[in-house]
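Q: What would this complex look like in 3D?
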Amino acid sequence: MINMKIVTWNVNSVRVRLPLIEQLIAEENPDVILLQETKCMNEFFPKDFFESHNYHLAIHGQKTYNGVAIISKYPIENVKWDLDDSTEARYIEGFTNGHYVVSAYVPCGNKSDEAYKYKQEFLGSIASRWKGEESAIIGGDFNVAMSDDDMQTPAKWIGSVLCTDEVRNGMQKVFDAEFDDCHEISDGKNDFTWWDYRRPNEGLRIDYILSKNVSGKLKTLQHYRKMERPSDHVPVMFEI
DNA sequence: ATGGTAGCTGCGCTA
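A: Here is my prediction, written as structure tokens for the whole assembly.
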């Protein structure tokens, strides 16, 4: 029996993506939606839209860049976004319908040496935050492809900050905090979650839903890539 | 071969 549906989605602007978010709600009726790259300050977040669909909100926005949110059919308690002392809005956690949930937007890390360093620190901070907790569900854009199976064209990505040994080790620290990658490859390398708008045949799996002490089934909603004005990421859904 | 697109912003930055 399914008792909870959780979707994570890097929408690349929540306001531009509202029509597709509305379709997601109509098709899947998720209990929880974890958003990344909302790209707007809290005062401009489309609260009325979500509330009219009977959702509660916990938002952590920022002008132009980043921005994360937890959208839930249930009240959201113990909301926190101070994972570290950064001014970048990349993290939010809350407790809803009996579960700790997290929406995380890990830095890409290709902007500068500092950004790359911060990517490692950010992954370490997530691992530290949840290491001792009994149960949690983290959805997000981790900007890490863990293996060649997560890459449509591995040779094109050699040396990329999305798949260096260092960032893979950083991501491994999160797994080592007793999180499971719920993903199962069904029929080959076909479960990518992101494509650069300029390179439509070089997909990567960099969006994950990780859980500890919660079992469920993961599904990548590929058809959201073929719609009008798609995000560069597709939604990933976890059914408990 | 080092381009290309998208979003937000304001003629550049980030991905």
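A: To summarize the key features: The mean pLDDT of chain A is 95. The two ends of chain A are 8 Å apart (CA to CA).
Q: Very helpful, thank you.
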